[in-house]
Amino acid sequence: MTAGVVVLLVLAGLSEAAGRVLPVVAGRSGATRTGTAGLLLTGTVIDGVMIALWPVLASVLAGADTMVWSASLVAPLLLAAVLAFPLLGPALHGLLVVGVGAGLTGALATSAGIGWWQAAGWVALAGVGLAAAVTGVRRLVISLHRGRSHG
């Protein structure tokens, strides 16, 4: 993975985290800058790692050589992540993620030498699995943060 791709993954993770953390923090009267920054940093790491693992897990599931993001495949995620803000269009965010998944599917199909639909299944399975895992981690972080705030 090139340094440019790593920067894009970090920015996509930050944008995704901001879209999820800031609306929640905005509604809390006792939110501190330090606490918000900590949640944002944690969210950036979690989302960035989840995004980075998507092609890796899809290629493992397909039994192919391990794929990684290229700049052209990951760049649209920045726009998708920005649109994760609840008031800016979750449906458009979802469509962009599906579009990025379609690009990833084409790359996986070529890399693994499998059909497009089979590759789409592996990409979807990897995406859903990672989304479920990151949702669990988010809920754990939120419950730990709430417990520490009230304790």
TrEMBL record:
Q: Which domain of life is it from?
A: Bacteria
Q: Which UniProt keywords apply?
A: Membrane, Transmembrane, Transmembrane helix
Q: Where are the transmembrane segments?
A: 67-88, 95-116, 122-141
What name does the UniProt record give this protein?
A: Integral membrane protein
Q: Which organism is it from?
A: Paractinoplanes pyxinae
Species lineage, top-down?
Answer: Bacteria, Bacillati, Actinomycetota, Actinomycetes, Micromonosporales
